[in-house]
Amino acid sequence: MNVGAADMTLLAMALPFVAAGLAPYLVRLMGHRAAWVLALAPLSIFIHFIPYAGLVANGRHVTAGFDWVPSLDTRFEWFVDGLSLTFAFLVTGIGTLIVLYSGGYMKGHPQQGRFLSFILLFMGSMLGLVLSDDFLMLFVFWELTSVTSFLLIGFDHEREASRRAALQALVVTGAGGLGLLAGLLLIWNVTGVHSLSGLLQSNEVLRQSPYFLVALILVLCGAFTKSAQFPLHFWLPNAMEAPTPVSAYLHSATMVKAGVFLLMRLNPVFADTPAWHTILPIFGGMTLVFGALLSVRQSDLKQMLAYTTMSSLGLMVMMTGFGGEHAVAGAVLYLVAHALFKGALFMVAGIVDHEAGTREVTKLGGLLRAMPVTFAAALAAAVSMGGLPPAVGFLAKEEIYSSLWHLDPWSLTFLACAVIGNALMMAVGFVVALKPFLGKRPHALGDVHEAPFIMWVGPATLGALGIVAAIAAPFTHEIVSSPMVSAVLGRASEIDITLVPHIGPPLALSGLTIVVGIVTYLAIAPFRRAVGGVLRAIGWGPDRGFDQFVRGLVRFSHAVTDRLQPGSLEVYMTVTFVAIAAALLVPMVVFGELPSMPTWPTDVTFYELTVMAIGIIGLVAVLIAHDRLTAIVSLGVQGFAVALLFMLFGAPDLSFTQFMIEALSVVILALVMTRLRLAPSDHRPTGEKLSDAAIAIACGAGFMLYLMRVTEGSFDATLSDFFARYSKTIAHGHNIVNVIIVDFRGTDTLGEISVVMVTGLAILALIRIRATRTDVELGDNDPREQHDPREEGSHGKRTYAGVEAE
């Protein structure tokens, strides 16, 4: 790939983020008409990728990038083949229509600029995800889609339902993302490659690894949570709390298909293994059937479409895992068909809600004359969703039935799942497309009119494309379907199915699907009541289970916080010093690294003994002190003794620093303690004194033994020689200690100064503040002793970390 094309691709990937930054300002200047300007960004990207279609149609792929984190051997690299190019077209093509649709749907909304910004941020994240080649790049964009979808789902953040749905989607998909990260790191460690293109060429290394199954499960965690596979599906229907443009974009054409994209991308790596051909069909089949049954129960247009999206995702996962050329072809064709018809139907549902004021299908009817264009778009989309000719959904269904038609129990089981799921989805699709428009209009709807062009152009375009793609099937296969299937299979493959019917079992199964779908459509009300009754009898489900899990997690965290953070400084210090003692002593004892005990030196001078005696006297003074002030002053004697040792052994700079630190410490502690009564002596019971003494002795012994063990080793003069050699030539300083502190460790010194400064300011605040109540006893007549109601709840409870305790 030439440098200019690579630069243009990089610019195309960055363009949605630039447009997102400009969106609020353009909306402020132009109002809802800013959508026309912002739609040029995804449209330009769509046009940029058109020349790539010829390359991938000829079996080629394009990869380019640059070093991102060279120290980690990580590149910002993109990979364009039939799979990623198709997704790029869906992300940008449907994204263009969604931006326009949002301009009309959100017209007059005070936060329209923010909404369009979020949509474009998500668009850039999804585009980066499908084009990513490097593992780290893939994960970054994967998580960006979760974050941006959180912002979009919770856009109406004043509503509790929106906040809950957004948090639920973030928790589920975010947790799956962590699993994906672990899987990618494991694959990187096993194979030594960190790019998807490289992994496709070294798949045998992973398959032969004992960690293959672990890596597969971790990757499936990410894919299944993102694509809402049972039983992790519950976040998807709840995400319908988002504005309709979000549902039409994220939850039909882009985000929820990220998991399917990942499975298709890794199909050449994991396919032809028993785990792959078992796990994916089972979970996909359950998701297909359960999603279709749950969609029949709903009466809200968006909820009906949401559960059929879940069902469709299950169908794609099932076919991807089932294996075989026809199965993958069916999954690919259905993915494209689903993006077109589901995006159109979601936008139709939004138009109906926008114009009629309700999404309840039982309250709708008779809108055909008022909204003929919307009805035509809905009907075209429903034909494709029902798998009827002349729509691309028909081609997908025929390929699916052709791949599943085998007379063995395994194939027949999933064939039954496909027939039941497709029939129910067909019924729901025509309920959405026909019920609001046919029949008599309820008086409650009032005056209804057609949506503006900026809103109906999207569903009309997508509905028409679903028909045109099937009529021009040879061209569609050459540009889209065959390159995509080749990428998923990892070998060259061609799709040749057209609208010309082929007499055989697949066509008969299509007829059976249509019959079951028509029966379900005509009896949709009894079906809805029956499924609802079963669900009410079951009562408990994954959605309620998520709430119970979160509630239990919060209670557990509160219990842990109560135990580990009781609000007692004494407990914190005890635990800290016990940990220090254990960290010092246990390794030396366990690994036999205790030092040899030194002998008493014979050349000790009297002044060295004097300094040691001063230290011992200060220690005894601290232990026998009768009041806190005496203990504080006696504690400073230890530091002065150390400073004298530095001075005696030729380190005046360190000695001066030590004198300053000890003097400052004594002054600060004395100032702080003036807030307390310094006269009382240690009032701890004897047992507590002994335990504290044991901990103190253990810490002291640990440091002593550790330093003795270090000094027994040979002295490494590398650093000393370095500083002596370069202190003058590089730092231009004669005093090596000063040069180390100011130049070589300047940043560290700056941090230490900052800590001292912040500590000093905090102490100053403590000295100046007027205490209202403290946990220590004040004088009987001290005017500062008064009750502070802030320390107790309204019922006399202590509160900390948001938790109440008696």
TrEMBL record:
What is its membrane topology? Answer: Multi-pass membrane protein
| Name by which UniProt lists this protein | Putative monovalent cation/H+ antiporter subunit A
Indicate the transmembrane segments per the record.
6-27, 34-58, 78-101, 113-131, 137-155, 167-188, 208-225, 246-264, 276-297, 304-322, 328-352, 373-392, 412-433, 453-475, 507-527, 571-592, 604-624, 631-650, 656-678, 690-708, 749-767
Q: Where in this chain does the entry annotate a coiled-coil region? A: none
Question: What's the source species for this entry?
Answer: Pararhizobium mangrovi
- Alphabetized InterPro entries for the sequence: CPA3_Na-H_Antiporter_A, MrpA_C/MbhD, MrpA_C/MbhE, ND/Mrp_TM, Proton_antipo_N
Q: Which GO terms describe its molecular function?
A: antiporter activity
Q: Which PANTHER family match?
A: NA(+)/H(+) ANTIPORTER SUBUNIT (PTHR43373), NA(+)_H(+) ANTIPORTER SUBUNIT A (PTHR43373:SF1)
For biological process, the GO terms are:
monoatomic ion transport
